[in-house]
């Protein structure tokens, strides 16, 4: 699901053959964070710069504009995509605003059965937490199915963690106060 990388100004690589092959038809513009997801066979499903979502045909999804990633696509890790562990056609897009902006951490849901199999967004910009840093990380749980989504609170030492399992996203965060405060 991670064989195709799209980034920057329409740049990309396809690693599905075992050797990198240059991709030149992507339409995404991203100064910093962006995300791509493929199916289990390595075929591109969709990609995002945290503001727009493009399908595998490099067209913006019908509801694929207006996501709350960093303005001007400038947030270090402004978007990640996580497959729904319990529903094979659903995917979560998580976005964070830039510089502890008021949008904070949000999620949207993509259903790949919509738009003749090209996908569309069914929930958009559901707020989870604010303010946050520009950082997002995803870790697979030991069971191999569920995930942890991790971000960091702004001007605090709090890591904000959400579980994503077969039931979907648990929107009650686990907050761990450890480490240094994140400041401007």
Task: Give a description of the structure.
It contains no helices and 14 strands. With 184 residues, it is mainly β. It has a 4-stranded antiparallel β-sheet with strand order 7-8-9-10, with no helix packed on it. The protein has a 4-stranded antiparallel β-sheet with strand order 11-12-13-14, with no helix packed on it.
- Which stretches of 5+ consecutive residues score pLDDT under 50? none
Task: Return the structural class.
Answer: mainly beta
Mean of the pLDDT scores? Answer: 89
Shape: globular
The beta-strand count equals 14
Measured between the Cα atoms of the first and last residue, the distance is 35 Å
Helicity range:
under 10%
Beta content comes to 35-45%
For the sheet with most strands, the description reads: 4 strands, antiparallel
Give the strand line-up of the largest sheet: 7-8-9-10
Helix-strand pattern: EEEEEEEEEEEEEE
Q: What radius of gyration results from the CA coordinates?
A: 16 Å
Please tally the helical runs, counting DSSP H or I stretches of 4 or more residues: 0
Topology:
Elements: E1 4-7, E2 11-14, E3 21-22, E4 35-38, E5 44-48, E6 53-55, E7 79-83, E8 90-96, E9 105-111, E10 120-129, E11 137-140, E12 147-152, E13 158-165, E14 168-177
Antiparallel strand pairs: 1-2, 2-3, 4-5, 5-6, 7-8, 8-9, 9-10, 11-12, 12-13, 13-14
List descriptors.
4-stranded antiparallel sheet, mainly beta, 14 strands, 184 residues
Question: Could you give a short description of this structure?
Answer:
By secondary structure, the protein is mainly beta. Helices cover 0% and strands 43% of the residues.
């Amino acid at each position: 699901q991670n064989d195709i990388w799209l980034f920057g100004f329409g740049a990309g690589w396809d690693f599905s053959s075992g050797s990198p092959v240059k991709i030149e038809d992507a339409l995404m513009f991203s100064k910093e964070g962006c995300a791509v997801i493929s199916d289990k066979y390595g075929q591109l499903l969709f990609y995002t710069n945290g503001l727009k979502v493009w399908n595998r045909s490099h067209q913006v999804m019908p509801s694929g504009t207006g996501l709350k990633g960093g303005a001007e696509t400038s947030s270090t890790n402004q978007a990640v995509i996580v497959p729904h562990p319990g529903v094979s056609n659903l995917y979560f897009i998580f976005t964070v605003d830039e510089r502890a902006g008021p949008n904070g951490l949000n999620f949207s849901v993509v259903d790949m059965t919509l738009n003749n199999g090209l996908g569309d967004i069914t929930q958009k910009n559901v707020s989870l937490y604010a303010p946050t840093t520009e950082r997002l990380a995803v870790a697979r749980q030991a069971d191999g199915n569920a995930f942890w989504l991790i971000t960091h609170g702004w001007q605090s030492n709090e890591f904000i963690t959400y579980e994503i399992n077969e039931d979907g996203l648990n929107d009650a965060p686990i907050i761990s106060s450890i480490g240094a405060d994140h400041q401007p």
